[in-house]
Write a structure and sequence with these properties.
The complex is a heterodimer. Chain A is mainly alpha-helical. Chain A has helices at 3-25, 31-40, 47-63, 78-94, 99-108, 112-136. Chain B has one domain. The chains are: A mainly alpha, B mainly alpha.
Chain lengths: 140, 137
C-alpha cells in the first residue's frame, strides 16, 4: 500500500476508536488527558483510563510486528529526546490536549478552542523542525 | 470484567492499531510532515483527514443520544474559550513535537514496542506532565 492509503486507513481506525469511546462511555479519546488521569486522576476514574492505554499500547505494539516499523535502536541524541519529552508532557497538560484530543476529537466537534490549539501546535512544531533541520543543522 | 472496561480496551486497541498502520510511531514520518520546506511527507495529513472525517460524522450522531450506550453521561468539554493557558500549552507542546516527532500516543505505543527512542522520551513526558499539573494547582 502507498503512504497515503496507509495514512487514510490508520486515520479511519483512529476516528472509529474515538467514536466508539464517546458512544460507549461518553469520553473524549484524548491520549494525553487519559494517560495523565490514569496516573494522577481521582481513584474511581482510573480503571477505564488504564484499560484504554493498555489496549492502545499492546495492540499498537502487536500491529507493528506486521507493518513496516521504525528501528528499535536509539536514533536521536538522548538530550534532544529528553527535552522533547518534557516539553510535550508539560505543554499537553497545560493546554489540555494533544494531537488526538484537540486534533482528532476537537476538530470533529468543531471546537473553536481545539482549532486554536491545533493551529498553534502545528505552527510551533513546523517552525521548530525548520530551525533544527535547515537553520541549525541536519538532525533526525 | 465490566462492559465499560471492555469498550475502553477496544477503543484503545483500535487507536493503537491505527497509529501503527499509518506509521505515526515512526518519528521520521512525522518530522517529514512537519518539515514543510524540506522533502515533505504528507502521510500525517491523510491520517488527520481520515480520522476527522469519521469523528465529524460519528460524533454528530452519538451526541444526539441522551446518554452514552453503557450509561453515565457525556464528558464533553463545555469550555470553548481560547485563553492564554491553552495557547501557551499548545505552543510548548508543538516545540517538543517538532524536536523529536513524538506526540503522546505514538510515544506510548513505541515504548511498548521496544523503541529505545520512546523509552527515553516517555519518562521525560510523564515528568513534564506532572510538573505542569503541579504548577496549575
Amino acid at each position: 500500500m502507498n503512504d497515503w492509503a496507509n495514512g487514510l486507513l490508520g486515520g479511519v481506525l483512529i476516528g472509529c476508536a474515538a467514536v466508539l469511546l464517546l458512544w460507549s462511555i461518553g469520553r473524549i479519546a484524548g491520549i494525553s488527558g487519559i494517560a495523565s488521569g490514569a496516573v494522577e486522576g481521582p481513584r474511581g476514574d482510573r480503571a477505564w483510563r488504564v484499560a484504554f492505554i493498555a489496549g492502545m499500547a499492546i495492540a499498537g505494539a502487536i500491529t507493528l510486528q506486521f507493518v513496516p516499523a521504525p528501528p528499535r535502536i536509539q536514533t536521536g541524541p538522548a538530550a534532544l529526546l529528553l527535552a522533547a519529552g518534557l516539553l510535550v508532557g508539560f505543554g499537553t497538560r497545560l493546554g489540555n490536549g494533544c494531537t488526538s484530543g484537540h486534533g482528532v476529537c476537537g476538530l470533529g466537534r468543531l471546537s473553536r478552542r481545539s482549532l486554536a490549539a491545533v493551529v498553534t501546535f502545528m505552527a510551533t512544531a513546523m517552525a521548530t523542525t525548520y530551525l533544527l533541520r535547515h537553520a541549525i543543522g541536519p538532525a533526525p | 470484567m465490566n462492559r465499560a472496561l471492555v469498550a475502553a480496551i477496544a477503543s484503545g486497541a483500535l487507536l493503537g492499531a491505527g497509529l501503527a498502520v499509518s506509521s505515526m510511531t515512526d518519528r521520521t514520518v512525522v518530522l517529514g510532515f512537519l518539515d514543510v520546506l524540506g522533502a515533505w511527507n504528507p502521510t500525517l495529513a491523510f491520517v488527520m483527514a481520515g480520522a476527522v472525517a469519521v469523528t465529524a460524522v460519528g460524533f454528530r450522531f452519538v451526541l444526539k443520544r441522551p446518554s452514552p450506550a453503557l450509561g453515565g453521561q457525556f464528558h464533553v468539554p463545555k469550555n470553548d474559550a481560547v485563553d492564554r493557558r491553552l495557547l501557551a500549552g499548545a505552543a510548548i507542546f508543538g516545540v517538543g513535537w517538532g524536536l523529536a516527532g513524538f506526540c503522546p500516543g505514538p510515544a506510548l505505543v513505541g515504548a511498548a514496542a521496544g523503541l529505545v527512542d520512546a523509552w527515553i522520551f516517555v519518562p521525560a513526558m510523564i515528568a513534564g506532565s506532572y510538573l505542569a499539573g503541579r504548577l496549575a494547582r
